[in-house]
Amino acid sequence: MNTLSAFRQFTSGLPEEDHLMPVLFVGHGSPMNGIEDNGFSRRWTEMAKEIPVPKAVLVISAHWFTKGTKITAMNFPKTIHDFGGFPKELFAVQYPAPGNPALAKETAQLLHSAHVELDHDWGLDHGTWTIIRHMYPEANIPVLQLSIDYSKRPQYHYDLARELYSLRKKGVLIMGSGNMVHNLRMAAWDRLNEEQYGYDWALHMNDKFKQLIGDGDHAPLVRYEQMGRDALLAIPTPEHYLPLMYTLGLKGSKDAVSFFNDKTIAGSLTMTSVKLG
User: Fold this and answer.
1) 24 near 250, Cβ under 8 Å?
2) Within a domain: residue 10?
3) Phi and psi of 217, rounded to 5°?
4) Which DSSP helix (H) or strand (E) runs through 202?
5) Which residues pair with 178 in a beta bridge?
6) Quick check: 178 and 130 in contact, CB under 8 A?
7) Residue 232, exposed/middle/buried by CB under 10 A (0-12, 13-18, 19+)?
8) Which terminus in the chain has less CB density within 10 A, N or C?
9) DSSP 8-state symbol, 226
10) Number of domains the chain is built from
11) Contact of 63 with 126, CB cutoff 8 Å
12) What is the per-residue pLDDT across 98-156, written as a single tens digit (0 to 9) for each?
């Protein structure tokens, strides 16, 4: 299916499916994962084969941090190269997936707790396309982004996500994209190429996060600032952590929990990812 026919197919409202789409939180890491054939990118490719083919993908990316809540509502979102200092091959990448203005409007109407602006300026940032191009390389599935309101606390985002639950019944793959542990200032860049290297506090928090997620105990994760010094080292700023709130807020009572790409790199970054359902 070409991009235009995909766009035409998905411009109308989506019917409910017989199955419930899983929900993902994906540690996206370096933009280079978007063009490299490595363990992380290969697992993204495998994941797409393990889950039902979505009717659309809605991504909450750490890299769209806004005042208020916005959703991309254009027919064809542009590919955003929101980084610097990388090879020209990375800047040359285009991911020409269609959008879905009708789904954007429907999603905005579902979010009763927020006034959602239909956005025609943003596009797909590297928190989205570096993952999705490995999962769906033909770019024939509509992709939308929902922004993160930086003025709101984690509980707000967790609760807002619950209002998106009905999209799972319509075949929409909802994905939070960030990193659970993300402290760039403390990263050991000289050890970036080691398959697994983490500071004690990073390993501790990664294990703690996984334990709480596996137990379905989300309250401490929402109140991460009360989890002590290690948590504050793991999450010095919230933008890469908040996408996890959207994934957890969408968990259903029967959803199984599993983890993938469970690696700590450069001391202070985790690629640990979550599948619900």
Assistant:
1) no
2) no
3) -95, 85
4) helix 200-215
5) 27
6) no
7) middle
8) N
9) G
10) 1
11) yes
12) 999 999 999 999 999 999 999 999 999 999 999 999 999 999 999 999 999 999 999 99
